[in-house]
Write the structure tokens for this entry.
Amino acid sequence: MSDEKAAASAGPVAPAPIAADAAGGAGALPDYAAMGAAVRTDAERWPTLSPLGLDALTRWRQTPHAPIWVHECGDLLTAEDHEVLGRRRAELLEPARAGRGGADRDGDDPPAWVEALVDRCRRHTTFFGRLGATSFDQLPMISRADLVRDVAAFVPRDQPLDRVVQGTSSGSSGAALVIPLDPVEISTELLLLERLLADVGVDWPHDPDRVGLLSVVDQRQAFTYASVLTIRDDQRMARVNLDPAAWCVPGDRESFLAAARPQVVTGSALSLLALARLDVRLDPLALVSGAVDLTPAARVELEQRWQTTVLDLWGLKETGPLAVSTDGGPHVVVPRRVHLEVVDGGGRALPDGECGELVATVDGNPLLPLLRYRTGDTGSLTWVGDRRAIVGLEGRAPVSFRAADGRLVPSVDLTQQLQHHGARSWSVHQGRDGTVVARVLGGQPAVLREALCTLLGDAVCVETVPTPADLGPGKPRRFSSALDGAG
């Protein structure tokens, strides 16, 4: 993975799902060597980093008790980018400061920006140009499979490609996807997080004595790196893996976290819970959960452990943030260009209050505008004040598997192995007796079984299927477990 691919996680909210082991060993993805793809210089990673910021970065990389850093990446922001982001910060934060929490009211009919986006995509992208549709209601819905098949067909031809950042997404069904991202849009998501915190009365000041943003994962293999956020006056940030094998000696993990005192911590529900169960004091201003569902019980545990704000942010890597729940209630659409629909199994639009699949139209990432994109997640639409909101959001549930030696193994570890060894889609279930059955499309059964046995032990059976339909109708739930405390 090059710097460009990893840089997408150097600022915004969601943790990157594809990763690699620093030290190798059993189960490691063999095509990644720690630091082997870090091809940029520091000057290229942070074009606007000050001399003081560079000195702080150098010391941050060498901080005592640090984890095993396996990658390096920066925000790529130029002076011109900072001017653009300065204007965006003012636009985003002004409504919060004025007490106006909502974006423009967005009803059933698409707002004006949607029709303008349709026209732009028709004129400048291969995919929508082929369709010939001239209005939103003429468009078919698209899915992740369309992007996997030919993501380049969705990239507007009028966009320069010399600064494309390649993000990766494992998704909740189908193959891994490489997503073209824009450095300015990546940092705009950080500004959006500032706005979401301001909406609930949380001030996020620049504090040089604390790490501004800490992204945590808890899995066997993961990218970890130390970085700085030039948009926040060169404040420190990092991505760390809570797995004990990602640290040099026992105790380093807790010592590092206590010294970092992160202001905002992001991660999946599972990784945030793993952090909460460590014997360490952090005093975070807020936690941001993404990637998988945050259950009510998990929210209560996090709120009680840290006595702080917990945001449940819903979105996809390809769409960016879409909606947020600040209190366990409805997920309110975030203040950016997002238009949501709900459809039934046949693609028919459903009225407010009826549950169906959520379909998103977004105009944020200039390199990947999306029209009528099927998210695979379900819910119903309503209003919270003047803001569109989702009730009963059901997305990607966190699932862990119990290995033969009693360890809990997060499903992301299985995703990495299955994808690496050629599986295109799958459904994995662990029964009450601990036996794991993986039904897989693509790949060699013997190789896949060996990879999964490395993680879980010998009680693994791999069955191949000829078509995606054999995995079941609709969006397959790829991971499930009948063991208490494992799923």
